[in-house]
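Lab notes, practical 5.
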Amino acid sequence: MTEPEINERAVGEYLREHPDFFDRHGELLATLALSHRHGGGAISLQERQLEVLREKHRMVELRLAELIHNGQENDATAEKLHRWTRQLLLSDARRLADAVGDGLRTVFGLPHVALRLWGLREEHSDKEFARPVPVDVITLANSMKHPYCGANSDFQAAAWLPEGGRGTRSVALLPLRKASDPLAFGLLVLGSPDPERFQTGMGTAFLDRIADTASAALSRLVT
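Output from the prediction step:
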């Protein structure tokens, strides 16, 4: 460390340890001049302090606005989840799978939704969601602890989406399982033409709730 740096640090430490320095040497405040942060010549120490306070106040306002915005978004999401859950509770077994998909499309605005279940009760074996599922997809679902989000990298399950998934740029794969059962009984696939809708590394807490709710509802259809 050079001598000027040592001296500057010593001055700073002295002023912090003696906050009454300018009370005892008030005449210095009238002579000190600091360069303006945005150009325009010199300003007094008081003006610089006011400038710093204004900047801190602006940052606090921005942070508060961000917190309010996030809170409003969370409230809106919670309301949507409540409406969707209510729809599932009001649906009978014959309409339950449709209620899952329709609710995700209409309540949450998810354009592409597909569902496959295995180990179904006999009375549901003729439904669209009961179509055969490749072993590799079942193995993938069993291995997933949380939903996957990311680009549509030609996942087999993405072919269940409209148009075989050709217009889907990003996907979320949600394994469905009974409570703590390590084995999945289904897979819910969400897709979007927007490549940014489901991104690798994005938080999955909300998708976890969707998977848990769908699992609880659809578990009535499996053995």
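Observations recorded by the TA: The mean pLDDT is 87. The longest helix spans residues 45-90.
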